Amino acid sequence: MKKQLTAITLSLGLLSATYTNVLSENAFAQQQEQVLSFSDIPESYWAFKEIQYLKDNGIVEALEGNNFMPNEVATRGKTARMLVKALKLDTNVGEVRKFDDLKSTHPDFDYIQTAVKANIFSGKDDGTFGADDPLTRAQMAKVIVNAFNLQGYSNKDFKDIPKSDWAYSFTSILRHSGVTTGYEDNTFKPNNPNSRAQLSAFIYRALTNEQVDVIPTTDYKKMSLEQLRETYGDYKILYRKIDEEKGIDEIVKIDMVERLYNYLLSRPNTETTPEEYLKQHNQGSLSEMGQFMDDKYPYYDVFVIGEDTFADHPETQWLKTNYGTTPIRQLKLFPDKYYYLTFDYQNFVNNILPTRPNSEDGVLIDIQLKSKHFPIYTKANITTDEFATKSYKVNQIDMIDGYSLYKNFGNVELEASRLVIEVNGHTLSLTNGDKQATLDGNTIQLSVSPEIQNGTMYVPVLEVSNKLGLYTRSINEFFRIEVSNQIIR
Protein backbone atom coordinates (compact mmCIF):
# COMPACT_ATOMS: atom_id res chain seq x y z
CA MET A 1 0.00 0.00 0.00
CA LYS A 2 2.83 2.31 0.91
CA LYS A 3 4.57 1.54 -2.43
CA GLN A 4 1.34 2.31 -4.28
CA LEU A 5 1.00 5.65 -2.54
CA THR A 6 4.60 6.45 -3.29
CA ALA A 7 4.08 5.60 -6.96
CA ILE A 8 0.94 7.74 -7.12
CA THR A 9 2.77 10.59 -5.45
CA LEU A 10 5.64 10.32 -7.90
CA SER A 11 3.23 10.19 -10.83
CA LEU A 12 1.37 13.24 -9.62
CA GLY A 13 4.68 14.99 -9.07
CA LEU A 14 5.84 14.21 -12.60
CA LEU A 15 2.46 15.28 -13.98
CA SER A 16 2.64 18.50 -12.00
CA ALA A 17 6.18 19.14 -13.17
CA THR A 18 5.22 18.41 -16.76
CA TYR A 19 2.18 20.70 -16.52
CA THR A 20 4.32 23.40 -14.93
CA ASN A 21 6.89 23.05 -17.69
CA VAL A 22 4.18 23.34 -20.34
CA LEU A 23 2.85 26.47 -18.66
CA SER A 24 6.36 27.86 -18.42
CA GLU A 25 7.01 27.16 -22.09
CA ASN A 26 3.71 28.78 -23.08
CA ALA A 27 4.44 31.80 -20.90
CA PHE A 28 7.97 32.00 -22.34
CA ALA A 29 6.60 31.78 -25.89
CA GLN A 30 4.10 34.55 -25.14
CA GLN A 31 6.83 36.65 -23.58
CA GLN A 32 9.09 36.08 -26.59
CA GLU A 33 6.26 37.05 -28.94
CA GLN A 34 5.76 40.28 -26.98
CA VAL A 35 9.48 41.03 -27.05
CA LEU A 36 9.78 40.36 -30.78
CA SER A 37 7.09 42.85 -31.80
CA PHE A 38 6.73 46.57 -31.16
CA SER A 39 3.37 47.48 -29.65
CA ASP A 40 2.68 50.19 -32.25
CA ILE A 41 3.76 48.22 -35.37
CA PRO A 42 1.00 45.76 -36.35
CA GLU A 43 1.62 43.21 -39.11
CA SER A 44 -0.58 45.29 -41.43
CA TYR A 45 1.81 48.27 -41.14
CA TRP A 46 3.49 49.12 -44.46
CA ALA A 47 7.03 48.74 -43.05
CA PHE A 48 6.37 45.92 -40.57
CA LYS A 49 8.73 43.47 -42.29
CA GLU A 50 11.58 45.98 -42.49
CA ILE A 51 11.26 47.24 -38.91
CA GLN A 52 10.86 43.72 -37.54
CA TYR A 53 14.00 42.57 -39.39
CA LEU A 54 16.04 45.42 -37.91
CA LYS A 55 14.63 44.72 -34.45
CA ASP A 56 15.47 41.01 -34.69
CA ASN A 57 19.03 41.96 -35.55
CA GLY A 58 19.43 44.49 -32.74
CA ILE A 59 19.58 47.52 -35.06
CA VAL A 60 16.51 49.42 -33.87
CA GLU A 61 14.97 49.81 -30.45
CA ALA A 62 11.88 51.28 -28.82
CA LEU A 63 11.69 54.95 -27.90
CA GLU A 64 9.01 54.77 -25.21
CA GLY A 65 8.13 51.51 -23.46
CA ASN A 66 7.70 48.98 -26.25
CA ASN A 67 6.71 51.60 -28.84
CA PHE A 68 8.88 52.14 -31.91
CA MET A 69 7.09 55.43 -32.78
CA PRO A 70 7.48 55.06 -36.57
CA ASN A 71 6.27 58.55 -37.44
CA GLU A 72 8.80 60.35 -35.25
CA VAL A 73 11.42 62.23 -37.26
CA ALA A 74 14.72 60.34 -37.60
CA THR A 75 17.51 62.45 -36.12
CA ARG A 76 21.12 62.53 -37.27
CA GLY A 77 22.29 61.01 -33.99
CA LYS A 78 19.79 58.14 -34.00
CA THR A 79 20.65 57.46 -37.67
CA ALA A 80 24.34 57.16 -36.76
CA ARG A 81 23.34 54.70 -34.02
CA MET A 82 21.30 52.55 -36.44
CA LEU A 83 23.99 52.46 -39.13
CA VAL A 84 26.79 51.61 -36.68
CA LYS A 85 24.66 48.77 -35.28
CA ALA A 86 23.76 47.59 -38.79
CA LEU A 87 27.46 47.39 -39.73
CA LYS A 88 28.42 45.93 -36.33
CA LEU A 89 31.19 48.52 -35.87
CA ASP A 90 33.28 48.75 -32.70
CA THR A 91 32.21 51.87 -30.78
CA ASN A 92 35.32 52.10 -28.56
CA VAL A 93 36.90 54.82 -30.67
CA GLY A 94 36.94 57.78 -28.26
CA GLU A 95 36.52 61.33 -29.54
CA VAL A 96 37.50 61.16 -33.20
CA ARG A 97 36.39 64.70 -33.94
CA LYS A 98 35.29 67.49 -31.61
CA PHE A 99 31.95 69.09 -32.47
CA ASP A 100 30.94 72.36 -30.81
CA ASP A 101 27.45 71.09 -29.94
CA LEU A 102 28.18 67.46 -29.04
CA LYS A 103 28.98 66.51 -25.45
CA SER A 104 30.31 63.13 -24.36
CA THR A 105 27.16 62.71 -22.26
CA HIS A 106 24.92 62.64 -25.34
CA PRO A 107 23.32 59.16 -25.61
CA ASP A 108 24.49 58.82 -29.24
CA PHE A 109 28.01 60.21 -28.70
CA ASP A 110 29.90 56.92 -29.19
CA TYR A 111 27.84 56.01 -32.26
CA ILE A 112 28.37 59.44 -33.82
CA GLN A 113 32.13 59.32 -33.27
CA THR A 114 32.22 55.80 -34.72
CA ALA A 115 30.21 56.90 -37.77
CA VAL A 116 32.59 59.83 -38.28
CA LYS A 117 35.63 57.54 -38.08
CA ALA A 118 34.01 55.22 -40.65
CA ASN A 119 33.45 58.22 -42.99
CA ILE A 120 29.67 57.75 -42.84
CA PHE A 121 29.02 61.19 -41.32
CA SER A 122 31.23 64.26 -41.53
CA GLY A 123 29.39 66.91 -39.49
CA LYS A 124 28.31 70.38 -40.61
CA ASP A 125 30.32 73.22 -42.13
CA ASP A 126 29.91 75.38 -38.99
CA GLY A 127 31.71 72.86 -36.77
CA THR A 128 28.55 71.35 -35.28
CA PHE A 129 27.04 67.91 -35.74
CA GLY A 130 23.34 68.53 -35.01
CA ALA A 131 22.73 65.19 -33.30
CA ASP A 132 19.11 66.02 -32.54
CA ASP A 133 18.41 67.70 -35.89
CA PRO A 134 16.15 65.95 -38.42
CA LEU A 135 17.92 63.91 -41.10
CA THR A 136 16.77 65.05 -44.55
CA ARG A 137 16.25 62.60 -47.39
CA ALA A 138 19.28 64.05 -49.20
CA GLN A 139 21.46 63.54 -46.11
CA MET A 140 20.02 60.05 -45.74
CA ALA A 141 21.08 59.20 -49.30
CA LYS A 142 24.64 60.32 -48.57
CA VAL A 143 25.11 58.40 -45.31
CA ILE A 144 23.58 55.18 -46.66
CA VAL A 145 25.78 55.30 -49.76
CA ASN A 146 28.81 55.93 -47.54
CA ALA A 147 27.86 53.27 -44.98
CA PHE A 148 27.26 50.44 -47.43
CA ASN A 149 29.77 51.56 -50.07
CA LEU A 150 27.08 51.56 -52.76
CA GLN A 151 28.22 52.24 -56.32
CA GLY A 152 26.89 52.78 -59.83
CA TYR A 153 24.71 55.53 -61.28
CA SER A 154 21.11 55.37 -62.44
CA ASN A 155 20.27 56.26 -66.04
CA LYS A 156 17.16 58.06 -64.80
CA ASP A 157 17.34 61.33 -62.83
CA PHE A 158 14.94 62.64 -60.22
CA LYS A 159 13.30 65.74 -61.64
CA ASP A 160 13.79 67.78 -58.44
CA ILE A 161 17.55 67.09 -58.17
CA PRO A 162 19.63 68.73 -60.93
CA LYS A 163 23.13 67.49 -61.74
CA SER A 164 24.55 70.59 -60.03
CA ASP A 165 22.99 69.59 -56.67
CA TRP A 166 25.45 68.21 -54.09
CA ALA A 167 23.09 65.28 -53.44
CA TYR A 168 22.79 64.30 -57.13
CA SER A 169 25.42 61.54 -57.12
CA PHE A 170 24.21 60.04 -53.83
CA THR A 171 20.55 59.89 -54.88
CA SER A 172 21.52 58.48 -58.30
CA ILE A 173 23.58 55.72 -56.65
CA LEU A 174 20.75 55.00 -54.20
CA ARG A 175 18.33 54.62 -57.10
CA HIS A 176 20.72 52.43 -59.08
CA SER A 177 21.14 50.17 -56.03
CA GLY A 178 17.39 49.65 -55.76
CA VAL A 179 17.17 51.22 -52.30
CA THR A 180 14.65 53.77 -53.60
CA THR A 181 12.81 54.71 -56.75
CA GLY A 182 11.47 57.94 -55.32
CA TYR A 183 7.88 59.06 -55.49
CA GLU A 184 5.32 58.38 -58.19
CA ASP A 185 5.86 61.81 -59.76
CA ASN A 186 9.60 61.01 -60.19
CA THR A 187 10.66 63.35 -57.37
CA PHE A 188 12.91 62.52 -54.42
CA LYS A 189 11.95 65.46 -52.15
CA PRO A 190 15.53 65.87 -50.86
CA ASN A 191 14.75 68.46 -48.17
CA ASN A 192 11.95 66.50 -46.52
CA PRO A 193 12.77 64.85 -43.19
CA ASN A 194 12.72 61.06 -42.80
CA SER A 195 10.51 59.26 -40.35
CA ARG A 196 11.96 56.39 -38.34
CA ALA A 197 9.89 53.98 -40.43
CA GLN A 198 11.20 55.37 -43.72
CA LEU A 199 14.80 55.25 -42.54
CA SER A 200 14.32 51.67 -41.36
CA ALA A 201 13.04 50.70 -44.79
CA PHE A 202 16.05 52.25 -46.53
CA ILE A 203 18.57 50.57 -44.21
CA TYR A 204 16.77 47.23 -44.59
CA ARG A 205 17.01 47.42 -48.39
CA ALA A 206 20.66 48.38 -48.29
CA LEU A 207 21.38 45.43 -45.97
CA THR A 208 19.36 42.81 -47.83
CA ASN A 209 19.64 44.09 -51.43
CA GLU A 210 15.86 43.78 -51.67
CA GLN A 211 14.46 45.94 -54.45
CA VAL A 212 11.77 48.50 -53.66
CA ASP A 213 8.54 49.41 -55.37
CA VAL A 214 7.61 53.00 -56.21
CA ILE A 215 6.47 54.93 -53.15
CA PRO A 216 3.94 55.90 -52.09
CA THR A 217 1.90 52.77 -52.52
CA THR A 218 -1.46 53.28 -54.21
CA ASP A 219 -3.13 51.19 -51.49
CA TYR A 220 -4.05 53.86 -48.96
CA LYS A 221 -4.63 51.24 -46.25
CA LYS A 222 -0.92 50.39 -46.32
CA MET A 223 0.34 53.97 -46.46
CA SER A 224 2.47 55.49 -43.73
CA LEU A 225 1.41 58.77 -42.13
CA GLU A 226 3.92 60.62 -44.32
CA GLN A 227 2.58 58.94 -47.46
CA LEU A 228 -0.98 59.93 -46.55
CA ARG A 229 0.17 63.54 -46.11
CA GLU A 230 1.94 63.50 -49.46
CA THR A 231 -1.14 62.08 -51.19
CA TYR A 232 -4.02 63.83 -49.43
CA GLY A 233 -2.42 67.00 -48.04
CA ASP A 234 -1.58 68.16 -44.53
CA TYR A 235 -5.12 68.75 -43.29
CA LYS A 236 -5.15 70.27 -39.80
CA ILE A 237 -7.10 72.61 -37.54
CA LEU A 238 -5.27 75.18 -35.42
CA TYR A 239 -6.95 77.39 -32.87
CA ARG A 240 -5.94 79.59 -29.96
CA LYS A 241 -7.59 78.91 -26.61
CA ILE A 242 -7.60 81.44 -23.76
CA ASP A 243 -9.11 81.14 -20.29
CA GLU A 244 -7.73 83.90 -18.06
CA GLU A 245 -9.37 82.59 -14.89
CA LYS A 246 -7.76 79.15 -15.34
CA GLY A 247 -4.48 80.52 -16.67
CA ILE A 248 -4.90 78.79 -20.06
CA ASP A 249 -3.17 80.27 -23.09
CA GLU A 250 -2.35 77.67 -25.73
CA ILE A 251 -2.42 76.65 -29.37
CA VAL A 252 -4.52 73.53 -30.01
CA LYS A 253 -3.76 71.41 -33.08
CA ILE A 254 -6.16 68.81 -34.48
CA ASP A 255 -4.31 66.67 -37.05
CA MET A 256 -6.99 65.23 -39.32
CA VAL A 257 -4.56 63.17 -41.44
CA GLU A 258 -3.16 61.55 -38.32
CA ARG A 259 -6.73 60.78 -37.26
CA LEU A 260 -7.29 59.24 -40.70
CA TYR A 261 -4.12 57.18 -40.32
CA ASN A 262 -5.19 55.86 -36.90
CA TYR A 263 -8.70 55.19 -38.25
CA LEU A 264 -7.28 53.04 -41.07
CA LEU A 265 -5.01 51.19 -38.64
CA SER A 266 -7.89 50.38 -36.30
CA ARG A 267 -10.31 49.48 -39.11
CA PRO A 268 -8.31 47.65 -41.80
CA ASN A 269 -11.49 46.37 -43.47
CA THR A 270 -13.21 49.74 -43.76
CA GLU A 271 -14.72 50.71 -47.09
CA THR A 272 -14.49 54.42 -46.27
CA THR A 273 -11.96 56.13 -48.56
CA PRO A 274 -9.62 58.88 -47.33
CA GLU A 275 -11.52 61.40 -49.47
CA GLU A 276 -14.82 60.41 -47.84
CA TYR A 277 -13.33 60.43 -44.33
CA LEU A 278 -11.71 63.84 -44.73
CA LYS A 279 -14.78 65.38 -46.39
CA GLN A 280 -17.08 64.11 -43.64
CA HIS A 281 -14.81 65.31 -40.85
CA ASN A 282 -14.10 68.53 -42.71
CA GLN A 283 -17.79 69.48 -42.64
CA GLY A 284 -18.19 68.45 -39.02
CA SER A 285 -15.07 70.32 -37.94
CA LEU A 286 -16.03 73.44 -39.84
CA SER A 287 -19.46 73.50 -38.17
CA GLU A 288 -17.90 72.88 -34.73
CA MET A 289 -15.28 75.58 -35.24
CA GLY A 290 -17.97 77.96 -36.47
CA GLN A 291 -19.88 77.40 -33.24
CA PHE A 292 -16.66 78.02 -31.30
CA MET A 293 -16.15 81.32 -33.08
CA ASP A 294 -19.78 82.30 -32.61
CA ASP A 295 -19.95 81.50 -28.91
CA LYS A 296 -16.42 82.06 -27.62
CA TYR A 297 -14.44 84.36 -29.92
CA PRO A 298 -11.89 85.79 -29.23
CA TYR A 299 -11.17 83.27 -26.47
CA TYR A 300 -11.42 80.53 -29.09
CA ASP A 301 -9.81 81.81 -32.28
CA VAL A 302 -9.52 79.43 -35.24
CA PHE A 303 -6.46 80.11 -37.43
CA VAL A 304 -6.45 77.21 -39.86
CA ILE A 305 -8.96 74.71 -41.23
CA GLY A 306 -7.26 72.39 -43.71
CA GLU A 307 -4.86 74.67 -45.53
CA ASP A 308 -7.04 77.81 -45.38
CA THR A 309 -7.71 80.52 -42.86
CA PHE A 310 -11.13 80.38 -41.27
CA ALA A 311 -12.26 83.39 -43.29
CA ASP A 312 -10.83 82.04 -46.57
CA HIS A 313 -12.20 78.50 -46.26
CA PRO A 314 -14.49 77.78 -49.24
CA GLU A 315 -17.25 76.41 -47.03
CA THR A 316 -17.31 79.39 -44.65
CA GLN A 317 -19.98 80.90 -46.94
CA TRP A 318 -22.32 78.20 -45.61
CA LEU A 319 -21.70 79.41 -42.07
CA LYS A 320 -22.24 83.04 -43.03
CA THR A 321 -25.56 82.13 -44.64
CA ASN A 322 -26.78 79.98 -41.75
CA TYR A 323 -25.56 82.06 -38.83
CA GLY A 324 -26.06 85.57 -40.15
CA THR A 325 -26.55 87.97 -37.25
CA THR A 326 -26.81 86.23 -33.90
CA PRO A 327 -28.68 87.62 -30.89
CA ILE A 328 -26.85 89.95 -28.55
CA ARG A 329 -24.40 87.97 -26.45
CA GLN A 330 -22.10 88.63 -23.54
CA LEU A 331 -18.37 88.98 -24.26
CA LYS A 332 -16.10 88.82 -21.23
CA LEU A 333 -13.65 91.71 -21.37
CA PHE A 334 -12.12 91.14 -17.97
CA PRO A 335 -12.77 88.54 -15.22
CA ASP A 336 -15.27 90.84 -13.51
CA LYS A 337 -16.77 92.82 -16.41
CA TYR A 338 -19.03 92.03 -19.35
CA TYR A 339 -19.66 93.84 -22.56
CA TYR A 340 -22.57 93.38 -24.97
CA LEU A 341 -22.43 93.38 -28.74
CA THR A 342 -24.42 92.23 -31.72
CA PHE A 343 -22.43 89.48 -33.39
CA ASP A 344 -22.88 89.96 -37.14
CA TYR A 345 -21.35 86.80 -38.57
CA GLN A 346 -21.13 88.03 -42.16
CA ASN A 347 -19.36 91.22 -41.12
CA PHE A 348 -17.22 89.19 -38.74
CA VAL A 349 -15.94 86.86 -41.49
CA ASN A 350 -15.72 89.49 -44.23
CA ASN A 351 -14.18 92.36 -42.27
CA ILE A 352 -12.91 91.27 -38.86
CA LEU A 353 -11.01 88.01 -39.31
CA PRO A 354 -7.54 88.07 -40.90
CA THR A 355 -6.92 86.71 -44.39
CA ARG A 356 -3.76 85.67 -46.18
CA PRO A 357 -1.66 88.31 -47.94
CA ASN A 358 -1.94 88.42 -51.73
CA SER A 359 1.72 88.96 -52.58
CA GLU A 360 4.41 86.25 -52.48
CA ASP A 361 6.46 88.15 -49.90
CA GLY A 362 3.46 89.34 -47.87
CA VAL A 363 3.37 88.63 -44.12
CA LEU A 364 0.54 89.34 -41.68
CA ILE A 365 0.83 88.89 -37.91
CA ASP A 366 -2.39 88.66 -35.91
CA ILE A 367 -1.71 89.76 -32.33
CA GLN A 368 -4.21 88.80 -29.64
CA LEU A 369 -3.42 91.14 -26.74
CA LYS A 370 -4.56 88.58 -24.17
CA SER A 371 -2.29 85.83 -25.52
CA LYS A 372 1.41 85.30 -26.14
CA HIS A 373 0.65 83.04 -29.13
CA PHE A 374 0.20 84.45 -32.62
CA PRO A 375 -0.33 83.14 -36.16
CA ILE A 376 1.88 84.18 -39.08
CA TYR A 377 -0.03 84.40 -42.36
CA THR A 378 1.73 84.26 -45.73
CA LYS A 379 0.35 83.50 -49.16
CA ALA A 380 1.79 79.98 -49.09
CA ASN A 381 1.48 78.98 -45.45
CA ILE A 382 0.12 79.60 -41.95
CA THR A 383 2.41 78.97 -38.98
CA THR A 384 2.44 79.99 -35.33
CA ASP A 385 4.98 81.51 -32.95
CA GLU A 386 4.92 83.09 -29.53
CA PHE A 387 6.08 86.21 -27.71
CA ALA A 388 8.11 86.00 -24.50
CA THR A 389 4.90 87.04 -22.70
CA LYS A 390 1.57 88.52 -23.69
CA SER A 391 1.26 92.29 -24.16
CA TYR A 392 0.75 94.88 -21.46
CA LYS A 393 -0.15 98.58 -21.43
CA VAL A 394 1.83 101.70 -20.55
CA ASN A 395 -0.35 104.84 -20.48
CA GLN A 396 -3.00 102.91 -22.45
CA ILE A 397 -0.43 102.06 -25.16
CA ASP A 398 0.07 98.38 -26.04
CA MET A 399 3.60 97.07 -25.51
CA ILE A 400 4.80 93.97 -27.41
CA ASP A 401 7.93 91.79 -27.51
CA GLY A 402 9.64 93.62 -30.39
CA TYR A 403 12.19 90.98 -31.37
CA SER A 404 9.64 88.16 -31.79
CA LEU A 405 7.35 90.41 -33.86
CA TYR A 406 9.70 92.19 -36.24
CA LYS A 407 11.96 89.22 -37.03
CA ASN A 408 9.11 88.12 -39.32
CA PHE A 409 9.58 91.23 -41.48
CA GLY A 410 13.36 91.71 -41.57
CA ASN A 411 16.53 91.65 -39.50
CA VAL A 412 16.42 92.30 -35.76
CA GLU A 413 19.27 92.41 -33.25
CA LEU A 414 19.09 92.91 -29.50
CA GLU A 415 22.40 94.37 -28.32
CA ALA A 416 22.65 94.94 -24.56
CA SER A 417 20.15 97.79 -24.04
CA ARG A 418 19.39 98.43 -27.74
CA LEU A 419 17.06 96.83 -30.27
CA VAL A 420 17.98 97.45 -33.91
CA ILE A 421 15.27 96.67 -36.49
CA GLU A 422 15.82 96.66 -40.28
CA VAL A 423 12.54 96.48 -42.19
CA ASN A 424 11.35 97.86 -45.54
CA GLY A 425 14.64 99.66 -46.12
CA HIS A 426 14.33 101.44 -42.75
CA THR A 427 16.66 101.05 -39.77
CA LEU A 428 15.20 101.84 -36.37
CA SER A 429 17.35 101.82 -33.23
CA LEU A 430 15.53 101.69 -29.87
CA THR A 431 17.14 102.12 -26.45
CA ASN A 432 15.84 100.76 -23.16
CA GLY A 433 14.12 103.45 -21.09
CA ASP A 434 14.62 106.20 -23.71
CA LYS A 435 11.84 107.87 -25.71
CA GLN A 436 14.41 109.09 -28.22
CA ALA A 437 15.07 106.67 -31.07
CA THR A 438 17.04 106.78 -34.32
CA LEU A 439 15.25 106.16 -37.62
CA ASP A 440 17.47 106.04 -40.73
CA GLY A 441 20.04 108.17 -38.93
CA ASN A 442 17.54 110.79 -37.74
CA THR A 443 16.43 111.29 -34.13
CA ILE A 444 12.72 110.76 -33.48
CA GLN A 445 10.56 110.89 -30.36
CA LEU A 446 8.34 108.03 -29.21
CA SER A 447 5.27 108.47 -27.02
CA VAL A 448 6.52 105.91 -24.47
CA SER A 449 9.94 104.41 -23.80
CA PRO A 450 10.84 100.86 -24.83
CA GLU A 451 11.40 98.61 -21.80
CA ILE A 452 13.60 95.55 -21.27
CA GLN A 453 12.15 92.90 -18.97
CA ASN A 454 13.89 89.55 -18.42
CA GLY A 455 16.04 90.04 -21.50
CA THR A 456 13.12 91.01 -23.78
CA MET A 457 12.54 94.51 -25.13
CA TYR A 458 8.90 95.59 -25.24
CA VAL A 459 7.98 98.37 -27.66
CA PRO A 460 4.85 100.44 -28.45
CA VAL A 461 3.66 98.17 -31.24
CA LEU A 462 1.45 100.52 -33.28
CA GLU A 463 3.87 103.41 -33.19
CA VAL A 464 7.00 101.40 -33.99
CA SER A 465 5.26 99.47 -36.77
CA ASN A 466 4.11 102.67 -38.44
CA LYS A 467 7.61 104.19 -38.17
CA LEU A 468 8.93 101.14 -40.04
CA GLY A 469 6.41 101.59 -42.84
CA LEU A 470 4.33 98.57 -41.83
CA TYR A 471 0.54 98.58 -41.98
CA THR A 472 -1.50 98.13 -38.82
CA ARG A 473 -5.13 97.59 -37.92
CA SER A 474 -6.65 97.63 -34.44
CA ILE A 475 -9.85 95.70 -33.66
CA ASN A 476 -10.34 96.96 -30.13
CA GLU A 477 -13.56 95.12 -29.31
CA PHE A 478 -11.72 91.81 -29.84
CA PHE A 479 -8.35 92.90 -28.34
CA ARG A 480 -6.57 92.35 -31.64
CA ILE A 481 -3.87 94.17 -33.62
CA GLU A 482 -2.79 93.18 -37.11
CA VAL A 483 0.65 94.07 -38.45
CA SER A 484 1.57 93.49 -42.09
CA ASN A 485 4.00 94.56 -44.81
CA GLN A 486 1.11 95.00 -47.24
CA ILE A 487 -2.16 96.94 -47.10
CA ILE A 488 -4.67 95.32 -44.74
CA ARG A 489 -8.28 95.08 -45.91
UniProtKB/TrEMBL annotation:
Q: Which InterPro entries match?
A: Cell_Envelope_Struct_Comp, Cu_amine_oxidase-like_N, Mao_N_sf, SLH_dom
Arranged from A to Z, the UniProt key words for this protein are: Signal
Residues in domain SLH?
34-94, 95-158, 159-217
Q: Which PROSITE patterns match?
A: SLH
Matching entries from Pfam families are given as:
Cu_amine_oxidN1, SLH
Magnesium recorded as keyword? no
- Asked whether the UniProt record includes Translocase among its keywords, one would answer no
Name listed for the protein in its UniProt record = S-layer homology domain-containing protein
Q: Which organism is it from?
A: Bacillus salitolerans
